[in-house]
Amino acid sequence: MAEVNPQTGLPPNWEVRMSQSKGLPYYFNTADKNSRWEPPPGTDTEKLKTYMATYHSVARPPAPQAPAYNANDRAGKIRCAHLLVKHEESRRPASWREAKITRTKAQALEIIKAYQERIKKGEISLGQLALTESDCSSARKYGDLGFFGRGEMQPEFEEAAFALKVGEISDVVETASGYHLIERLE
Questions:
Q1: Residues 19 and 105 grouped into a single domain
Q2: Catalytic annotation on 136?
Q3: Are both 164 and 99 inside the same structural domain?
Q4: Active site includes 21?
């Protein structure tokens, strides 16, 4: 097997590029011109996590202020961050961290509960943990999903998010995507 890139952890001919339409990183093969959202097989995920956290994460966006956003555009919307742990039964068992997620639901639940404990103890914030551990592409934005209204998220996620007060973090929430911890930002 060929050596992975020592900086990115990606196999030969693969590089990280930015999507102009989504503003998110993706993986591009310069030899066959194929692209994908998930890391290609053979990726050293630990090296990739370090590379992505260093070069493709952004500072947590500040709360939007007028005139950047029209207050009417945000009516009825909230802003949340989340940390997602997927498992083999997730509706899409792949992420920017792993091309194929094989952990069981029980293992995923154990992982997210351990994250929850670290956050509760004040060892780390949800956003800092999401940056390297979340299976959602929002990880590069410290888990920040931006503003959303009712009907825009999975029902279980939405119910938990809208029940939170600003600054609160949910208990573990299960959706078809996996297990989430949700923090209400606004």
A1: no
A2: yes
A3: yes
A4: no
